[in-house]
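Database export, one record per block. Field names are fixed; values are copied verbatim from the stored entry.
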Amino acid sequence: MAQERTAIEILNAMEDELGLARSTSVAATTTIVRQRMAHINATLEECQAFGAWAALEKEAIIEFGAPTVQSCTLTADSAIVTTASTTFITANSVPADSWLIQSDVTENIQRNTRLASVTNGTTFVMNKTADGSGAESCTFIQDTFAVPSDFQRSIPQTHWDARLMWSMIGPTSSQFDAFQRNGIVGPFPRRQFRNQGRAPVRFRIFPPPTATQDYPGTLSFRYITNEPVYTPADLTKRFFTANDDRTVIPDRLVILGAKWRWQQAKAFDFGPLQEEYYNWFDGMISDDKGESVVPLDGRGDFGFPDRYGFGYNIPDGNLPSV
């Protein structure tokens, strides 16, 4: 299959079809070229955001090990805690609130207590005050993880606990997550997930991996990347910035989108060009991955004949006695 046209070839094709003078560089700083490239890159961004292109689908892997156990000194009615070292908390640029903390001996740390901030190399602050004072062993559990830097959106029902071979449940709502973390709940076999926090550290799981069988853990899910452009060195990025850049988005679609945007910016009639663009958009999306499987019995989704596609038509936990 032939590669799509380069960035400069796409720009020149757009100019030829609009009867405009050709440009020699997509990185030119003139207002004319900057505007035309803005239309091209805006089309790339729209196609990437709203199209499930096969070439933009990637797999994310999240791995985690055992919780960290350290001795901590607590003070009653205070959220400030001292410990031997806080280096592990902020390692790999992980925010402090990605960690839960629990007491291993007493109940001086309230349930569902999370780290709020790190003060220095030996001191941190919890989001709740301690109920008692003293030095005791504490367990730090990371339950929020980073998504890939090029993450745009996840693909539904592709989230799996790879080691336990269970599909994950989610994304759960804020209300349900609050109930699970603060209410009285029973054990259940499958992990849940939700998006919470500022990117990229926003993938939060429940229950936290505290039991021995919970770690090491490997989670996986499919997502759409926000980088549809690639260089001759096969490095990806969001927009065209060099003449020899290429995109996985069909070049004809990019040209059509840039043309109607240019017409709109000049206050010309852009309706016919816009209609042509969106007709091509719908058709190319269908051609790219093929038509989805639709079960004729009407019971399933994503091409599977049962609820959620995996045959798990049973509640989590114990089945009721008959």
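Remark 1: Residues 31-50 form the longest helix (20 residues).
Remark 2: The first strand starts at residue 57 and ends at 64.
End of record.
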